[in-house]
Specification:
4 helices; 2 domains; Anthracycline_SecMetBiosynth; eight-stranded mixed sheet; 2,3-Dihydroxybiphenyl 1,2-Dioxygenase, domain 1; alpha+beta
Length: 261
């Protein structure tokens, strides 16, 4: 097991869940991924950190009073070395700042915003909390992508925000997917949403690595979750798009296929 100690600016570095049923969510995700949780911190809204082998994975907090009717979602945070400057670029690029940069004592600074095409995301300027310490192993995050109804607009926004090198995958029509790279390394992507997505709003998707997608998907349904799409094979592993019992959407992805000899 290795411990990750940092992320480049623009890379997704953290995710957290606003839980409708805080106790139930901790049981569900512990049963699915084997997470252990820190003691919730009352002065931070009972925020807690999920861990694998003592290493941080994601965060979770109960919904605040008045938020129970809001959707239960996973939020993705992009790393920045300067939240104030990044917020100015968000506004210049047509996004909307929801929560301006604020101090999380001893941890870092966070902000929250909508991109120019309507997907919500967070920013994280690290201090002692440098992001997820476990990454790309079973039970940890391994990939993130923004699902957008206005893909070209979203690409321009994020390119202006962090200078991503963007690589078109597929034909750009039937399958429109763009990989976001930093210094030649893929850190995320953008999927064009089609009519098949129904009324799901634009959003950032979190992928969690699992040892076996079908086994994990079956376990998820036993715990009360739902399979929304798949499992299906991809060049990067077998994928299932799922939700927890309270409607928070995320994806499971198995190991990447071994190259043929």
């Amino acid at each position: 097991m290795t411990q990750r100690t940092g992320y480049p600016d623009g890379a997704p570095c953290w995710a957290d869940l606003n839980a409708t049923d805080f106790d139930g969510a901790r049981r569900f995700y512990s049963g699915l991924f084997g997470w252990a949780f820190d003691e919730p911190v009352a002065e931070f809204g009972h925020y807690t950190t999920a861990r694998l082998g003592g290493r941080s994975v994601v965060g979770m907090a109960p919904k605040m009073p008045g938020q129970q009717d809001m959707p239960t979602v996973w939020s993705v945070y992009l790393k920045t070395s300067d939240a104030d400057a990044t917020v100015r670029r968000i506004e210049d690029g047509g996004g909307k700042v929801l929560v301006p940069p604020m101090e999380i004592p001893g941890q870092g600074r966070m902000a929250f915003a909508f991109d120019s095409a309507g997907a919500a995301f967070g920013l994280w300027e690290p201090a002692s909390h440098t992001g997820a310490q476990a990454f790309d192993e079973p039970g940890a995050m391994c990939w993130h992508e923004v699902n957008s109804r206005e893909g070209t607009k979203a690409d321009a926004f994020y390119r202006g925000l962090f200078g991503y090198e963007q690589q078109q995958m597929g034909d750009g029509e039937k399958f429109d997917y763009v990989v976001y790279n930093l210094e030649g390394k893929a850190v995320g992507g953008r999927m064009q949403m089609t009519a098949e997505w129904g009324d799901i709003p634009p959003h950032w998707m979190v992928y969690f690595r699992v040892a076996d997608t079908d086994t994990s998907a079956a376990r998820l349904t036993e715990l009360g979750g739902k399979i929304l799409h798949g499992p299906f094979d991809s060049p990067h592993g077998r994928i299932a798009v799922v939700s927890d019992p309270w409607g928070a959407i995320f994806s499971l992805v198995g190991p990447e296929p071994t190259a043929a000899a």
